[in-house]
Design a protein that fits this description.
alpha+beta; seven-stranded mixed sheet; six-stranded antiparallel sheet; 27 helices; disordered N terminus
């Protein structure tokens, strides 16, 4: 199947693309698998989403499962607390049943809720206090602590206060746990990308000894060891080929989609695949010294640098903390100076409790949850909460070429016969010779001939010539189809009239196959990586929204220039290796541009992680999808437009919800403090609690309006 690998320098990712579609980053490419009929070790991808633990920010040390479990138990305890709460019963005008001990249900269960459900917020609040970075956790911790103490004072009858906040405490903790659970489910796991990269290495290797071969763990390999790498297997470490020749798929390291020939003296890289033959390799680097480990470090560094952004709700929470604390202090001092210490305590407690509205805890998570659902319906998986906020600010979308803007597979573009009238006959003969080959190039030639309705003559005695082409007998003639290597081996010179056509094809990066009859060239065909029709619409629509479009690829400059011209792309980066892809993103950022990177391969993962928004094509590798904040379920680049539109709509909803949540506080806190007491207007604790719950309903209903946003790819313009 690897018979066409040296036809030209064309970067066609057909084998890589097909393997990506299977979503198994650790198996060899489709090309290698077909050639060897074997598979490499399977990826050990981490799928425990419910237990992912985040190392940064307010959720440090907290897992999604922890918030989920605490929410459900807290909700179960909150129901009787609310039902038996005298304040809540008075508000709704009913009498809860009375029996021995019924009065202690709210205090006892409320205490359990405070300790069990409130512990993450209490610990988080202490951490924010220690670091002098107040946010949501400190605001929640302050509110539930004040409500807890005030409610116990009321339950024990101390001081004659009427500050029964047990029901409000229970609902506040339950709703905040729900908000944080929803929020954390929207977060992506940075660790997953590193796990997926590590899975590219085989678990075991065949080490050659004087007695033969032995199977050892990759961890046992040392520099200088000699290993046997069989057809279809991955290189266990970086090294140098000492014996044998094989076509090696290095796409996950170099970005070059076609296989390359590696023979004695050539270097090979850990994780790459020997697709057709067995080779012996002398190990030169293992562990952290390998190129794959270098990519892992790039991903880790890029993800760490992009995880420091602070959520919008946290900034609002910091403002409200200072606002509430300041209002509480002023309230207590003012009412104490007026000679009413009980009123000072009541007003201050009310201010501090209602300063943490339920709405603020749900304002952002609800929008993210609904946006995620809407995006999923449009084939867009949002893995990182910050992607929603950032996408609306993007200045440039940087597309990887192969498999993203292009189909990642070869397509016949042209054919030229030495005798012009024989063009169709030439294509039929080429397809006949290629008909028994499974190579992507061969399939493209056969497919094109059949699409043109050509009748293919029967071919026999098919032979594959690794790295040169194929040969078969057609109608009694021995014909060969191959690239430059076959011409050199045969000592045949291309006719001048044909060279005029093939030179132009090669200048734009096309693969050129010659059809040879004995020592005579009958003609040639060209194949190129086909540009997606959807790519034209996506590029034009992005530019229409004021967003620049750039393209990055490991392909030759003439290949990149041809695609860029066809799509009218603003800027092109060609012949770029993985580390340089990451650097190109940083280069764009250094110009003051905010970058969204769209890619599908392992070699794209550092750049995906470095960009403000990383968008992985769904047919790509596990690593690319783990490194990205957004994953497109399909291969349609127009889905990026859906992300832009959804980002802008959701950001508007976030701000509307935050304005409502914080605006409620700005109005209700002064009223609770008693600034209009002279006019007989005082916000009672009960009324403040009811208004707080009402604000939650408003925020929830406003978030639901996001469902009106239509994300239809067929209507992109």
């Amino acid at each position: 199947m690897e018979e066409h690998t040296s036809h030209s320098a064309l970067q066609m990712g057909a084998a890589e693309h097909a393997e990506h579609a299977a979503a198994d980053v650790s198996a060899p490419t489709a090309a290698g698998a077909a050639a060897s009929h074997g598979h490499g070790p399977h990826s050990g991808r981490d799928t425990h989403d419910d237990h992912m633990v985040h190392a940064h920010g307010q959720h440090a040390g907290h897992s999604t499962a922890m918030f989920k479990n605490r929410f459900w138990l807290t909700l179960a305890l909150a129901v009787p607390v609310v039902y038996f709460s005298p304040m809540f019963a008075h508000l709704l005008g009913y009498m809860p049943p009375e029996f021995p001990g019924s009065a202690w249900i709210p205090p006892v269960l409320g205490t359990a809720i405070f300790v069990y459900g409130g512990m993450p917020f209490l610990k988080g609040g202490l951490n924010e206090l220690k670091t002098r970075q107040p946010g949501m956790m400190l605001l929640i911790g302050m509110a539930i602590s004040v409500a807890f103490v005030a409610s116990w004072v009321t339950s024990l009858g101390i001081g004659g206060f009427d500050l029964d906040f047990w029901w409000e405490l229970a609902l506040l903790v339950a709703i905040m746990l729900l908000g944080h659970w929803i929020e954390m489910r929207a977060l992506g796991s940075a660790r997953g990308a590193l796990d997926a990269l590590a899975a590219l290495l085989p678990d075991e290797a065949e080490r050659i000894t004087e007695a033969g071969t032995e199977t050892v763990s990759v961890a046992e390999l040392r520099a200088g060891d000699l290993v046997l790498v069989r057809s279809g297997a991955r290189m266990p470490a970086d090294g140098t080929v000492t014996d044998g020749t094989a076509e090696v798929d290095e796409s996950m390291i170099t970005g070059e989609s076609k296989t390359v020939t590696r023979s004695a003296g050539d270097a090979v890289v850990a994780g790459t695949v020997a697709t057709d033959n067995t080779v012996r390799v002398r190990v030169t680097a293992v562990g952290d010294d390998t190129a794959l480990a270098g990519i892992q470090r790039l991903v880790a560094e890029a993800q760490a640098s992009s995880s420091r952004a602070q959520a919008l709700a946290d900034r609002a929470a910091a403002f409200l903390f200072y606002f509430a604390a300041g209002a509480g202090v002023i309230t207590f001092i003012a009412w104490t100076l007026l000679g009413s210490v009980p009123d000072a305590v009541t007003r201050t407690v009310t201010v501090l409790v209602i300063a943490c509205p339920h709405a603020l805890g749900l304002a952002i998570p609800l929008v993210i949850a609904i946006s995620t659902e809407q995006a999923a319906r449009a084939g867009v998986l949002i893995k990182n909460r910050m992607a929603l906020e950032r996408m609306r600010t993007i200045d440039v979308v940087l597309f990887d070429k192969t498999g993203t803007l292009t189909k990642g597979e070869p397509e016949l573009k042209d054919a030229a016969a030495v005798e012009a009238a024989n063009r169709e006959e030439l294509l039929a003969l080429a397809a006949a010779v290629e008909s028994d080959s499974e190579h992507p190039v061969a399939r493209a030639v056969v497919r094109a001939a059949r699409q043109q309705g050509l009748s293919l003559p029967r071919a026999t005695d098919f032979t594959s010539m690794t790295g040169r082409g194929v040969r078969a007998t057609v109608d009694g003639r021995v014909l060969a189809v191959g690239g430059p290597a076959l011409l050199r081996e045969s000592g045949i010179t291309e006719p001048a009239e044909l060279a005029a056509s093939t030179r132009g094809w090669m200048d734009r990066g096309a693969a050129v196959l010659h059809v040879i009859d004995g020592d005579r060239i009958l003609g040639a065909v060209s194949l190129e990586d086909a540009v997606r029709d959807e790519s034209r619409q996506a590029v034009a629509a992005l530019q229409g929204r004021g967003i620049k479009v750039a393209m990055i690829t490991g392909d030759a400059r003439q290949v990149a220039a041809s695609v860029a011209a066809e799509l009218d792309i603003d800027e092109v980066f060609a012949e770029v290796l993985p580390a340089d892809k990451d650097k190109k993103v940083a280069e764009l950022q250094a110009r003051g541009l905010k970058v969204a990177m769209v890619g599908d391969g392992v070699n794209d993962s550092p750049a995906l992680a470095r960009a403000e928004v990383g968008i992985a094509i769904g047919a790509g590798t596990d690593v690319a999808m783990e490194s990205a904040g957004v994953v497109l379920a399909g291969n349609d680049p127009r889905a990026v437009l859906s992300m832009v539109d959804l980002s802008r709509a959701s950001y508007r909803k976030m701000w509307q919800n935050l304005v409502w949540a914080t605006g409620y506080n700005v109005i209700s806190v002064p009223l609770a403090a008693g600034v209009l007491a002279f006019a007989g207007v005082v916000l009672s604790p009960a009324a403040g609690a009811v208004l707080m719950s009402a604000s939650t309903i408003v925020v929830a209903l406003n978030a639901q309006l996001l469902r009106r946003v239509k994300l239809n790819l067929s209507q992109v313009r």
